[in-house]
């Protein structure tokens, strides 16, 4: 493929995905990438770096990526897109770094060059996937009316991703307005339709989420699918209405059910009462602190929103998994008194 082909950028990405989350072991390959054609060298270098440190929260790597975003490009260079996405990939690991990255991306929007502005909505989508924060929603809503169609299409897709499977009424309203605003532009209208599909993913029963087990573990397969899709988004015109619309299917790798289903030891559905509320961080606290706050009691199956946690409301059953999400097998508690 020539360097101008929209598929060329998947070559460095494929190399980067081999080292997803592997940290230092990427260094030998990063040295080899310095021998590549100068038009793709820097792009490859930053893609490798952001994949290797994805989900680690490494502050020094975020600093390095930000330094690359501050450079003024020579004509024909395009390596700042993966650097912006890299900031999101590295700092999506924990809540505090995530908020700081969102603030940093706001600065990049104000002071960055055009190719940086095109990638900022995609980075915001990765940081807030399934978790529609009000400030991020407002930023994306503003960018979805941008004069540059590439910024607008990235912002529209990102609105769909942050609301993936949440049926969020505010995002759904924004997308309805955008579909009437862009009714003459086929590419942007197509993006609005994709975003609407993402917001109502599986009628609100599915979600896109690279993290599982109470945001403790990262699924490399799910992250790889999301990152591949986000790397394709800047080439939206060539990808989606053009020949490469199949790239949309990479999102399937990150789809998983939002509900908590409980089954017995023979895998037959079992409806039990569970308390669902906002998760509280209890790491390092003494005694038996409350793990959720402001809970409501429901019978399973039950949908869990972003930041929600569930716990069993009865002692008749013991869960075989310490974390209640997805499918959980329950066994009967032998110490439970029959008469109660």
From TrEMBL:
It holds the Pfam family PC_rep. The keyword Cytoplasm does not apply. Residues 283-336 form the 26S proteasome non-ATPase regulatory subunit RPN1 C-terminal domain. Keywords: Proteasome, Repeat. GO terms for cellular component: nucleus; proteasome regulatory particle, base subcomplex; proteasome storage granule. It comes from the Eukaryota. One of its GO terms (biological process) is proteasome-mediated ubiquitin-dependent protein catabolic process. Transmembrane segments: none annotated. PANTHER family: 26S PROTEASOME NON-ATPASE REGULATORY SUBUNIT, 26S PROTEASOME NON-ATPASE REGULATORY SUBUNIT 2. This is 26S proteasome non-ATPase regulatory subunit RPN1 C-terminal domain-containing protein. The lineage of its organism: Eukaryota, Viridiplantae, Streptophyta, Embryophyta, Tracheophyta.
